[in-house]
Amino acid sequence: MTWDMIGHEWAVQLLQGHIENNTLRHAYLITGPSGIGKKNLAIRFIQAICCPNSKGPGIPCLECPTCTRLQRLEHPDLFPISVEDGSKQIKIDQIREMVRKLSLSPYEASRRFGLLIDFELANRNSQNSILKTLEEPPGSVILILTAVSASSLFETVASRCEEIKLNPVPIQTTRQGLENLYQIPADQADFLAHISAGKPELARAYHQVPETLEVRNTLLDQHFEILTGDSVARFAYANQLVKDPAMVQEMLNTWSSIWHDILLQIGKSDTPIRNIDREREIQDIISSIDLQDAKSAVKLFQRAHGLLQKSANLKLTVEDLLLQLPTIPP
Question: Cystine design at 288: which of 87, 121, 201, 328 (Cβ 3.0–4.6 Å)?
Fold first, then answer.
């Protein structure tokens, strides 16, 4: 089992078994929260199928030209689709073009692959346009979809795929993976493992792209300001935030993580907190709320996530969340 991934060993073993036993499915759906490693697992799976220098069934070398091009999403038999720059959704024209290309014979590999990244961002027409290919796929085609959950897709789409649901990775596993695979110093690896909340690809992004860590820090600073602010400040923040839907998702993920920590601390849990660099702020918030307040806040974030997965109005959802969060003294 050598896919150079952090965690998700069971998923790697499952997919390797499909390769080794020649029981590949025509469609897979890899689900889990952002940063968990869905896209990375999909690419490793395709590399394991296509690598000409494999070290054994389902064990890609990860170094040959084939593996390298697949990693860059540049292989002639791989057709990746994601939201284009300047757009908010995966468009039907993207799906139709991919389906057209998949109907052709493989150019180099034994199969052709459609990789549909964050497919929960596909609208109704786009999801419907993939149904026929899911129902009657060409024999040499494998479709791999990634999404936050099966419920974020149409049931007719999700039910035609084999779901692989990825769960958060333990802190120790993440820390060791960051040290061993990316030679990150132990103290930094420990910090990244904590704040990424069991999401290895998010931890790696924090390390490789410092701007992502800066975004997190900014969002946490803004979170504390909102809790001490009035309704006018909260409306103003919502109006600014919804101009960037991707940032709304970042906000929800980041703020919900600190409320998870708050709930753990109030509940006297032995589970380590995620935001270990924000302990003082966590204690300041705890001094002004009770256990019921913390539980209610966590539910608010869960509700907001669920509403946005169902394409609820972005501005109303964010405003409702912000106005219902507790107020603490400045």
Answer: 328
pTM, two decimal places = 0.88
Alpha-carbon distance of 293 to 300, in angstroms, equals 11
Reported as a single tens digit per residue, the pLDDT across 129-166 is 999 999 888 889 999 999 999 998 999 999 999 999 99
> Judging by beta carbons within 10 Å of its beta carbon (0-12, 13-18, 19+), is residue 84 exposed, middle or buried?
exposed
Q: In this predicted model, what pLDDT tens digit does every residue of 242-262 receive, in sequence order?
A: 999 889 989 999 999 999 999
**Sequence spans of domains, the chain:** 9-79+93-165, 169-208, 211-324
Alpha helix segments (H runs only) across 196-278: 200-208, 210-227, 231-241, 245-266
Longest dimension (CA), the chain: 65
For the stretch 19-46, pLDDT in tens is 999 999 999 999 998 899 999 999 999 9
Burial class of 198 by CB neighbour count within 10 A (0 to 12, 13 to 18, 19+): buried
3-state SS class at 171 = helix
In this structure, how many other beta carbons lie within 10 angstroms of the beta carbon of residue 123?
A: 14
